[in-house]
Amino acid sequence: GAGVSQTPSNKVTEKGKYVELRCDPISGHTALYWYRQSLGQGPEFLIYFQGTGAADDSGLPNDRFFAVRPEGSVSTLKIQRTERGDSAVYLCASSHGLAGGREQFFGPGTRLTVL
Amino acid sequence: AQSVTQPDIHITVSEGASLELRCNYSYGATPYLFWYVQSPGQGLQLLLKYFSGDTLVQGIKGFEAEFKRSQSSFNLRKPSVHWSDAAEYFCAVGVAGTASKLTFGTGTRLQVTL
Question: What are the tens digits of pLDDT across the range A78-88?
Fold first, then answer.
């Protein structure tokens, strides 16, 4: 079956612009996660959803970052007034549920470059 | 808060040689532990995981890892490395019984020489 997909695969934008990154989880997965991976670092947790609601957004760096999952499937990560420091690979993952330790299946990521 | 340390940034081994990648975690209770592999242009793939029970866990591609509570370690091993194993390896910890957000280490890049 299809895995987690993310679009676009690459996004180049200018400082101050608004961007949206999309994640399509594995069908039937109720939990969805966003991570950010900076160059030379491991993925860093941003936010996760159980169904439509954000269960934990403690990893969002500031209020320029926002994510939605209106129908409990596709999610969009939104970044306002982008800064050069936002440049990173944004990873999405999904799993069957939030029970501790359920395997998270990762997408290939969106590489965001802010000029 | 939990944390993960991967002390080796870069490791080079010869094909056919054995491999051990180190991972140390910090967490007050029994964690959920994972090893992921990331190849260039690919998403993270789960190699193996530890929740409880047998401290030696087997994973895909011939990898295994051993949980040692006394050392707060979860080292990844493979008896004989193949050239296709060259990739970035990440250790991660999750909190048992709560949300499954993962805390990752900074990764170890494995280079395999022929």
Answer: 999 999 999 99
